[in-house]
Amino acid sequence: MTETTVTHTGQPDRPKGWRGITADWASDQRAFKNVSWGKAMMWIFLLSDTFIFGCFLLSYMTARMSTRVPWPNPSEVFALRIGGSDIPLILIAIMTFVLISSSGTMAMAVNFGYRHDRRKTAILMLLTAALGATFVGMQAFEWTKLITEGVRPWGNPWGAAQFGSCFFMITGFHGTHVTIGVIFLIIVARKVWRGDFDTGRPGFFTSRKGRYENVEIMGLYWHFVDLVWVFIFAFFYLW
Amino acid sequence: MAEATANGLGQHAPHATHAEQAAATAVAHPEVHQEHPIKLYLVVWAWLFILSTCSYLVDYFGIHGYLRWSLILIFMMLKAGLIVAVFMHMAWERLAMMYAIILPPILVLVFVTMMVFEADYTLLTRIAHFGPGP
What's the predicted TM-score (pTM) here? Predict the structure, then answer.
């Protein structure tokens, strides 16, 4: 497979562009032509999750803009002392690279899943889960460091009191998402490894046969977690 | 399986009913998906690393003011775009799907604008009543 197989046109006689949008959204039919319900529902869930994280970042922005007390400098707060000198934000940068790498391995897992390469798919998914767990571990370290330095949701030694509540709320919610993602990655990787999607073994919860598309749906969630981190990194840590 | 038929690879029957198509493709080709060369993912991965490094360097070199904020936003949007377009395969979806998912988050910017005014007003009243900060 050297060429990209593009399948975006749906049925060959469906219009494109704006005419395509109105035609797809017209009544009495499925709006998303070449997207299965599972993928469409994951996208809509991610959309709702976008609003949740959007509201967190918005309230953080409002708190930071409306306080008279100076905001603690994240560059100094999150600096680590390595080899006798303070390196700003170094742990956060490493966490970013870990999460991006996990997104890369996940994208390749989806690709190998569609090629029905069970071994490679499962290994890449487990690697993704391992990177995700590493991320959560580093976040736990960061939380511990800040808590020992006296950061609380109601105050901190460096400035505006809202810093702590924003930090714990946003990164905590994101870390929860990563943790849930790691758990589901392991579950789906086990199914792939066992060949559930080849043999059509019913799922333990829904009793429905899974398909390799489940790997892609899992991937959508995982990439979203990475996507949210891109925004948190920019707005909370760098701003 | 009926869901997967809309673009069953290669076996379109333009004038067949949906049910007929579903029956035909469900047997012949139960899964519909896109395959891209692995190289594409590696290139995007590399770019995400480069962009992350760039945004980290903005902080490392202590760039401040509008240059800092615009650089952060540019790198952020480029990274988000790459992830959504390539890793999440949004670039290959139909427009109806793209707009349904991407448009609503953009409308959050209206909310952002409202809260900017609100925050400014709150700060103003705080300064008016409690003085300009400790």
Answer: 0.85
Q: How far apart are CA A216 and CA A197, in angstroms?
A: 13
Tokens of residue B35, six digits:
């395959």
Contacts of B86 (CB under 8 A, 6+ apart): A107, B40, B41, B44
Q: State whether A10 and B9 contact (CB < 8 Å).
A: no
Residues in A closer than 8 angstroms to B75, CB to CB, are 234
What interface predicted TM-score (ipTM) does this complex get?
0.86
pLDDT in tens, B62-74: 888 899 999 999 9
Encode pLDDT of A184-224 as tens digits. Answer: 999 999 999 998 888 888 888 888 888 888 999 999 999 99
Counting one residue from chain A and one from chain B, the pairs whose CB atoms sit within 8 A come to 220
Asked if residue B77 lies in contact with residue B71, where contact means CB atoms within 8 angstroms, the answer is: no
Question: Alpha-carbon distance A31 to A50, whole Å?
Answer: 21
**Minimal-distance CA residue of chain B relative to A217:** B88
Residue type, A49: D
How far is residue A121's CA from residue A118's CA, in Å, rounded to a whole number? 5
Task: Find the DSSP H helices in A67-89.
Answer: 74-77
- Rounded Cα gap, residues B92 and B27, in angstroms: 25
When computed from its CA atoms, the radius of gyration of chain A, rounded to whole angstroms, is 21
Cβ neighbours for A41, distance < 8 A, ≥ 6 positions apart: none
H or E element that contains A147: helix A118-148
The answer to whether A213 and A121 have CB atoms below 8 angstroms apart is no
Residue of chain B minimizing CA distance to A71: B133
